[in-house]
Amino acid sequence: DTEVTQTPKHLVMGMTNKKSLKCEQHMGHRAMYWYKQKAKKPPELMFVYSYEKLSINESVPSRFSPECPNSSLLNLHLHALQPEDSALYLCASRRQGSYEQYFGPGTRLTVT
Amino acid sequence: GIQVEQSPPDLILQEGANSTLRCNFSDSVNNLQWFHQNPWGQLINLFYIPSGTKQNGRLSATTVATERYSLLYISSSQTTDSGVYFCAVGGLTGGGNKLTFGTGTQLKVEL
After folding, report:
1. pLDDT confidence tier of residue A84, bands split at 50, 70 and 90
2. Does B73 touch chain A (CB under 8 A)?
3. Do A43 and B90 lie within an 8 Å CB cutoff?
4. Which of A37, A53, A54, A99 should be substituted to probe chain B, the one whose Cβ sees the most B Cβ atoms within 10 Å?
């Protein structure tokens, strides 16, 4: 089983709102990732968590705040976003002993 | 950082045709994956292939790590093969964690 789930599927939020994206995997993977994909562009890495600790932050603005409360769950807290932050946000996980990453279906975010 | 180039950027095929997609990368890698992104945005794993050759049904892939390229072969294409194909690599310095995606090949298969 290589399933990563993400909720919600779609999200529309205003620039003053606070919202959160959620990602779950129950495969025992200990590395989890957030990627951002703008329309007609490839995904770009935002954050990497390894054993529930933030190991890579690709200079992402502080209005994006990741959290890994346990080994199965990854959140991305959003606050004071800009319209240019509208994108598909993808979560991925990686099993031990392999570099292969598995992606969730994504959350399509629109900031108005 | 590592650079990843894919070609061709766009490809239109008639159903039943064969095609080859190419991925060139600028440095040594310990991770190379091919994905198919469907119209709903889901990235589907096709191959994990940092070196060697693999086959899965009508698809096969070859990575020549010493020459820094990978090829994805699609045979007897079907309309359901339409979508964007991405090559993504993880360089040695990132410990394989930092996947860098190519710009993709947009494939359309017509009847």
Report:
1. very high
2. no
3. no
4. A99
Residues of chain B contacting A88 with CB distance shorter than 8 Å = 41
Please give the helix or strand (H or E) that residue B14 lies within, else none: strand B10-14
pLDDT tens, residue by residue, B4-16: 999 999 999 999 9
B28, B21, B31: which is closest to B86 by C-alpha? B21
Residues of B in contact with A23 (CB under 8 A): none
pLDDT of residue B111: 94
| Beta strands A31-37 and B29-37, pairing class | unpaired
Contacts of A34 by beta carbon, 8 Å cutoff, 6+ apart: A23, A45, A46, A47, A66, A74, A76, A89, A90, A91
